[in-house]
Amino acid sequence: MKKVYLFHLSVLIYILFMHVTQETFSFMGLNVFLAWLPFIFAQLFLDLENKGRWLFMPLWLLFFPNTPYLLTDLFHLASLQIYQAGGHFLNTTSDWWAYLTLLLPVLVMVFSGMAQVFNLFSAIKLSRGQKIGSFVILSLLSSIAIYLGRFARIHSIELLVHPVTVLKLLLGDWPVEKIQFVLIFSILQLGIWGLIYFLQRGGQEE
Prior knowledge:
InterPro entries: DUF1361 (IPR009793). This protein is mostly helical. Helix content is about 75%, strand content about 0%.
């Protein structure tokens, strides 16, 4: 339990740090906050033992895409003046610190949030086949949400505020590029879950 509290405290400190002190990648404070919310909702579901805990499941599902969404923030690293043409690297300290403040939270939040899905699926007692199917469906839904977030600039909360608009975007045109993006990010998420599964399994065998 202490580790969980330490995790939440670290995330909160990071969010405040990015919001107050940083100019480069300051948007990461908000993005990490949005990825933190599903972790909190899932933790509440896992910790509570009454029927009211099921209220947190739709909230978790609504905000979960913000977790793998962080992977798209890695493209902002291209704005740093670290790598130069010809394969040369510059030791620009400020850029390397910016590199750290973007990469570390992405790795921590993505792997923590996606690893938590295993605990959720176990808590609701899904069979092996149901778990596999749920991972596939969740990866597809998340990938669609990531696409809308990146290219249509639709945020999770807008599904509640402007549901008709979001549904129109969901059911609207599906060009080849959109289908490929959803497929790519679905494979990426399934690959991460596969890695987490084998790491957890290896740890249990030891």
